[in-house]
Design goal:
The chain is mainly beta. It has helices at residues 15-28, 87-90, 99-107, 263-270; strands spanning 42-44, 47-54, 62-64, 94-95, 118-125, 128-135, 138-144, 148-151, 162-167, 173-177, 184-188, 200-201, 203-205, 208-211, 221-226, 235-240, 250-252, 285-291, 296-303, 306-313, 319-328, 344-350, 354-355, 361-362, 365-372, 379-384, 387-393, 398-405, 413-418, 424-432. The protein has two domains: 4-84 and 258-432, no CATH class; 90-252, no CATH class.
């Protein structure tokens, strides 16, 4: 088990190593969708993503270094430490569909025989859940948020290639794929933080591919990269806006109450055109907010066991591009944590980047943000051997523990949770995953 101090610095990889990592990312774990994500850093195409987890509720702590923080020089000898995370793990893929999800999807159509639809699998990310259905030779996709349902038109198999058949207002891309295609990545040129040089790796199985809540809301162009296999060469299919499928009507079948305004800072994050859209943006409840430093502010919001973390730059939050991430604590979504706890789940975000002599930027400081799942929790504190204690109150069910220096202290870190009377409810270990 690693603790937070063991997070290695971000670093770009040599081209050959990047290519191998991309291939393993898309294919290497595809035959083992039930495996747990490794407790290492995933670094692909010069953008490093460090996964940090608070053991609880099967929820991830995913911290991505922003691309404007250029990583230092690569050490090819470190490449063997990489362990890619498969798309199945990234999107919490499960066979079939929950009965409630399938019922919502089948109720969204007024024609055909939806009772005969076979649910192939379900994939989800950041509040968007996509179910792939098969009806005879045709495939269709149903996308669910807590408030809405969207249903694609049916599509037939495309031969030995891939065809985009569904692009949603929630940043989902899906389509049909030939049996000779084993891996796919989709590139959106408007996306500010792509995972790899070739875009975002998709789930590819059962003759379809899916990327839930991963591209921008209205992409002007999408490029599909088809990975090579033993019996076929790699390929590229580009679709401009006019060639993409027509927009599908989104139906509000479970209206959600609108809370008080989340404020200017969070609203800017929710409207960011260069990131996957925030689902059901009007329903998010504002939470804790802190000034990280003179130039960065962090704002939280929560919605249906999800936590949105927004970091904006500028003394008044008016400059730079907002950075929005969403951690989903609901069962079956994203990375699995090591063990359950009844108190909280959390995420971590690097900030306070400083320039280096080689022109890059780096940071060893994170803010740990969380959503409590036990209403008794009123206060949280982070500590560890040789580490100063950082404490914070719970605000509207959320908390921020800023100023966590990854190079400080020894041994494992832990979060202690207390109630309003100061009584300790429990301690939650923090670990890398």
């Amino acid at each position: 088990m690693f603790d937070l101090r063991d997070l290695p610095p971000p670093r770009p990889l040599p081209p050959a190593v990047r290519a191998d990592a991309r291939q393993r990312l898309a294919e290497g774990l595809a035959n083992h969708p039930g495996t747990r994500p490794g407790r290492t850093v995933v670094a692909v195409a010069g953008v490093a993503a460090a996964v940090f987890a608070v053991t609880g509720l099967g929820a991830p702590l995913l911290t991505s270094l922003r691309p404007d923080a250029g990583p230092p020089a690569a050490d090819p000898n470190d490449a063997g430490q990489l362990q890619p995370v498969s798309p199945e793990q990234r999107y919490g893929v499960r066979d079939g569909a929950l009965a409630a999800d399938a019922d919502r999807c089948r109720a969204a159509t007024g024609k055909g025989n939806p009772a005969a639809w076979q649910a192939l699998f379900t994939a989800s990310a950041r509040g968007a859940t996509v179910v792939a259905f098969r009806s005879g030779p045709d495939t269709r996709f149903c996308e669910l948020t807590p408030e809405t349902v969207s249903l694609s038109a049916p599509a037939s198999p495309p031969g030995d290639t891939a065809t985009i058949t569904y692009v949603s207002r929630w940043g989902t891309v899906a389509g049909v794929v030939g049996s000779g295609v084993r891996s796919i990545s989709v590139s959106d040129r408007q996306l500010l933080w792509p995972t790899t040089d070739e875009g975002e790796p998709a789930v590819v199985r059962d003759g379809v591919f899916v990327l839930p809540n991963t591209v921008t809301a209205a992409p002007s162009s999408l490029t599909v990269h088809l990975g090579p296999t033993a019996d076929r060469a790699a390929g590229v299919v580009t679709a401009e806006a006019g060639q993409l499928p027509a927009a599908v009507t989104t139906r509000t079948d479970r209206p959600q109450p609108a809370p008080a305004s989340a404020g200017k800072t969070f609203s800017r994050c929710g409207r960011q055109a260069s990131a996957p859209p925030l689902v059901d943006a009007h329903g998010w409840v504002p939470g804790a907010a802190v000034e990280l430093n003179d130039n960065e502010r962090l704002q939280l919001a929560r919605y249906h066991e999800m936590l949105a973390v927004c970091v904006v730059t500028g003394a008044d939050g008016s400059t730079g591009s907002p950075h929005l991430t969403v951690a989903d604590g609901r069962a079956g979504g994203g990375f699995a944590a090591a063990a359950a706890n009844p108190y909280l789940f959390a995420s971590a975000t690097f900030y306070g980047f400083t320039g280096q002599s080689d022109g890059s930027s780096s940071s060893d400081t994170v803010a740990i943000t969380g959503l409590v799942t036990d209403n008794r929790v009123a206060h949280v504190s982070l500590g560890g051997t040789g580490r100063r204690q950082i404490s914070a109150p719970v605000v509207d069910g959320t908390f921020v523990l800023p100023g966590v220096n990854l190079n400080e202290g020894t041994g494992q870190m832990a979060i202690t949770v207390t109630d309003s009377a100061g009584e300790v409810l429990g301690t939650v270990p923090a670990e890398n995953r």
